[in-house]
Amino acid sequence: MINNGVADVTLIGNLVAPVELTMAGETPKGKIRLAVNESWMKDGEKQEHVSFFAVTVWGKRASACEQYLVKGQQIVVQGRLRQERFEDKDSGDPVSYIHIVAREVIFGDKPKAKDGEASEDTEEETPF
C-alpha cells in the first residue's frame, strides 16, 4: 500500500522576470516566474498556448538563481506541486493556488542579444 501521494513535476520554460530573492529567517527564498510555451498544428495552422507557473526555490540554490539567471533565460525545474490555502483579506473568501517547490533548477542558455551574441557571459560556472 502506498502511504504518500506523488506530485512531482518537471517544467521547461523561460523566466518571465528576474528572480526575486527574500529571506525566510536566515534562509534565502527565491521566487521564479516561469512561462511554458506549447505549440501544435491543427487544421494546418499553428496553435500556441502559454502557461505561467510560480516556483519557489530555497537556500544556496535560490541565491545562485538570483545571481546567475536573467529574464528570458530557459531553465528546467524539477520539484513538487504544493497547494496553498488562505482567506482573502478583503472578502474573507477562501483562496487556493498551486505552485512548484523546486528540488533542482538547471540553467539553460541565456537569451540572445539583437546582434546574435548571448546577452551575458554564458561560460560562467554555476555552483551546482
Q: What does this entry show, briefly?
A:
The chain has 128 residues and is mainly beta. The protein has 1 helix and 6 strands; from the N terminus they run ββββαββ.
Description of the molecule:
The protein is mainly beta. The protein contains 1 helix and 6 strands, in the order ββββαββ. Strands 1-3-4-6-5 form a 5-stranded mixed beta barrel. Strand 5 and strand 6 form a beta hairpin. The chain is globular and about 45 Å long. The protein starts with 7 loop residues before the first strand and ends in a 21-residue tail after the last strand. The C terminus is likely disordered.
Shape: globular
**Which topology does CATH recognise?**
OB fold (Dihydrolipoamide Acetyltransferase, E2P)
CATH superfamily: Nucleic acid-binding proteins
The secondary-structure class comes to mainly beta
| Measured distance between first and last alpha carbons | 36 Å
Supply the CATH class.
Answer: Mainly Beta
**SSE succession:** EEEEHEE
Q: What is the total number of structural domains?
A: 1
> Whole-number average pLDDT?
88
Number of strands: 6
Largest sheet: 5 strands, mixed, barrel
Supply Rg: 17 Å
- Helix amount: under 10%
Strand portion, in percent?
over 45%
For the largest sheet, list the strands in their spatial order.
1-3-4-6-5
Count the DSSP helices.
1
Identify the CATH architecture: Beta Barrel
Are there runs of 5+ residues with pLDDT below 50, and where?
121-128
